[in-house]
């Protein structure tokens, strides 16, 4: 596959690995946070950590939209499907996320609620056209990459006069979350989470560009390298971060130039600005309430806003007891620190969102067998 | 064939529906201007995508596909440049190897 295979070449990975080994300063630690679940996935799938020197450590961040959605919003979607008799359309991953009482959209679907998995917002529009007598709700979640397609659908619904389509908007913003992590007491005061630099998101940045990261690279004095999602992209970006840290620089650099520019995708940004506006604050699982970190639908498009058409109460719900997703999302704990990991909680029977999405840290640990290694080391240490 | 819904046989498109943040590079092979849409090819798979989010794309361009939308054009020149960077790592390595007395294998 073009633009994929050549960025996975084994021989080049070995070369980059040797270059990184040559350039690291043995006397220091490099704690590099990958914000995006896509990077977490690549790091595990291709064993990138194994190609790094011991003093380069990946810290997994909260960049998985499914993982950070608070349980209360899943409960809202379940209520919409069960009590309001809507056709609830959603991307695949959301179906299995446990809400309160371990109910999921998949379970209520089995009980008769009309929940449908869609691949694209275009599919949701089609369902609305085909079912004029029913209310169709699109459960919209995702970062800046997934927001423009929702904006297109809302504008299209308006242009077509589709009266039975609305979006339940849960779109969130990446720069706000990164800033929140850097301002958290764990990073600032306690120092329990060490972050020396960031891998900037690939596809989010293809929309928003590299410019939005400039503020906090400067403000928090941390380098950011926007990195593609293929393993060689991650390695090259690690090298770029290591060089910046060695030279005492904290700039925004772009490794993923084949897609990302400083300004991003202007057409997509304009569409998003036309349809959405900032929420004052929004709850993220793991991070709590984050100011100006999410979007809602502008009043000009209120007819397509599920939260205006239906009663969508604020629900305070808690995670399954024992689930450590919130701490894992902040980089404070590892999946193997969770007592439920691999025993009670597996991808087949997930207890928390971090095990549902393939971008979640728990699922990545499980799927690529990292935990076995960790378990062995722990056993050896205890022996 | 029974059991084709197994994850091993899932088409890349289906997989990406589950991996929401991921996008796949694919080549644009057809443009349907009236509907702001097009068709992309990924190996033998063809897929209709919306072109509502991109400007000036042409048949033959590679684009990133995400949840049924072309999100961005991929620049072939920049891709080459990045690949060349990976190669540069090698030069530095050889240089270090030489100055270290050619001990590198
Ligand atoms: S292993 Fe399961 S229960 Fe534990 S933190 Fe991860 S998702 Fe939550």
**DSSP strand count of chain B:** 5
Oligomer: heterodimer
CATH superfamily of the largest domain in chain A: HypD, alpha/beta domain 2
- Helix-strand string of chain B: HEEEEEH
How many structurally independent domains of chain B?
1
Based on secondary structure, the structural category of chain A is alpha/beta
Biggest chain contact: A-B, 61 and 45 residues
Which structural class should the secondary elements of chain B be placed in? alpha+beta
Alpha plus pi helix count of chain A: 18
Shape of chain B: elongated
**CATH structural class of the largest domain in chain A:** Alpha Beta
Explain the overall architecture.
The complex is a heterodimer of chains A (383) and B (105). Chain A has helices spanning 10-23, 37-45, 65-68, 71-83, 105-110, 121-130, 147-160, 174-183, 185-188, 203-208, 214-219, 231-246, 266-275, 306-309, 325-329, 353-356, 361-367, 370-382, and strands at 30-36, 56-63, 87-90, 115-117, 136-142, 165-171, 197-200, 224-226, 252-254, 276-278, 281-284, 288-291, 295-297. Chain A is an alpha/beta fold. In chain A, helix 2 packs parallel to helix 17, helix 6 (121-130) packs parallel to helix 7 (147-160) and helix 7 (147-160) crosses helix 13 (266-275). Chain A folds into two domains: 1-310, HypD, alpha/beta domain 2 (Rossmann fold); 325-382, no CATH class. Chain A has a five-stranded parallel beta sheet with strand order 2-1-7-8-9, with helices on both faces. A four-stranded parallel beta sheet of chain A has the order 4-3-5-6, sandwiched between helices. In chain A, 55% of the residues are buried. Chain A is built from 18 helices and 13 strands. Chain B has 105 residues and is of the alpha+beta class. Chain B has one domain: SH3 type barrels (Roll). Helix content of chain B is 30%, strand content 30%. Chain B is built from two helices and five strands; from the N terminus they run αβββββα. Chains A and B meet through helix 1, helix 2, helix 6, helix 7 and helix 10 of A and helix 1, strand 1, strand 4, strand 5 and helix 2 of B. Iron/sulfur cluster (SF4) is lined by residues 323-325, 328, 335, 338, 340-341, 345, 351-352, 354-355, 362 of chain A.
């Amino acid at each position: 596959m073009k633009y994929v295979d050549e960025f996975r070449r084994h021989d080049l990975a070995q070369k980059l690995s040797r270059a990184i080994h040559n350039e690291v300063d043995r006397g220091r630690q490099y704690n590099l946070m990958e914000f995006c679940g896509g990077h977490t996935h690549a790091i595990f799938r291709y064993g990138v950590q194994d190609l790094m020197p011991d003093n380069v450590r990946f810290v997994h961040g909260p960049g998985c939209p499914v993982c950070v959605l608070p349980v209360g919003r899943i409960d809202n979607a379940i209520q919409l499907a069960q009590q309001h008799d809507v056709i609830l359309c959603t991307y695949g991953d959301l179906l299995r996320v446990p809400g309160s009482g371990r109910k999921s959209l998949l379970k209520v679907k089995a009980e008769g609620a009309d929940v449908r998995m869609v691949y694209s917002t275009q599919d949701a529009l089609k369902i609305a056209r085909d079912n004029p007598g029913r209310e169709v709700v699109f459960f919209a979640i995702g970062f800046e990459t997934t927001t423009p397609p929702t904006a297109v659908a809302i504008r299209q619904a308006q242009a077509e006069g589709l009266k039975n389509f609305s979006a339940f908007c849960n779109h969130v913003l990446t720069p706000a979350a990164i800033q929140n992590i850097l301002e958290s007491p764990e990073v600032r005061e306690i120092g329990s989470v060490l972050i020396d630099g960031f891998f900037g998101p690939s596809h989010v940045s293809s929309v928003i560009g590299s410019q939005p990261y400039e503020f906090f690279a400067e403000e928090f004095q941390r380098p950011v390298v926007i990195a593609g999602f293929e393993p060689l992209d991650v390695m090259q970006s690690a090298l770029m971060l290591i060089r910046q840290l060695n030279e005492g620089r904290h700039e925004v650099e772009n490794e993923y130039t084949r897609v990302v520019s400083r300004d991003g995708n202007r057409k997509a940004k304009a569409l998003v600005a036309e349809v959405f506006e900032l929420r004052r604050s929004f709850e993220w699982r793991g991070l709590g309430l984050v100011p100006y970190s999410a979007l809602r639908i502008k009043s000009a498009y209120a007819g397509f806003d599920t939260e205006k058409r239906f009663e969508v109460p604020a629900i305070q719900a808690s995670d399954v007891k024992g689930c450590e997703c919130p701490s894992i999302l902040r980089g404070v704990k590892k999946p193997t620190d969770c007592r439920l990991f691999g025993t009670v909680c597996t991808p087949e029977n997930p207890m928390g969102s971090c095990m549902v999405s393939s971008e979640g840290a728990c699922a990545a640990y499980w799927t690529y067998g990292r935990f076995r290694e960790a378990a062995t080391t722990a056993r050896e240490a205890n022996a | 064939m029974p059991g084709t819904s197994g994850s091993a046989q899932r088409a890349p498109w289906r997989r990406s529906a589950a991996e929401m943040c991921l996008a796949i590079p694919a080549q644009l092979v057809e443009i349907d201007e009236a509907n702001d849409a097009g068709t992309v090819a990924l190996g033998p798979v063809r897929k209709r995508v919306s072109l509502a989010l991109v400007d000036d794309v042409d048949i033959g361009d590679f684009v990133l596909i995400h949840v049924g939308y072309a999100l961005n054009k991929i620049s072939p020149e920049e891709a080459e440049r990045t690949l060349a960077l990976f190669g540069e790592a090698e030069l530095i390595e050889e240089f270090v190897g030489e100055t270290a007395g050619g001990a590198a294998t």
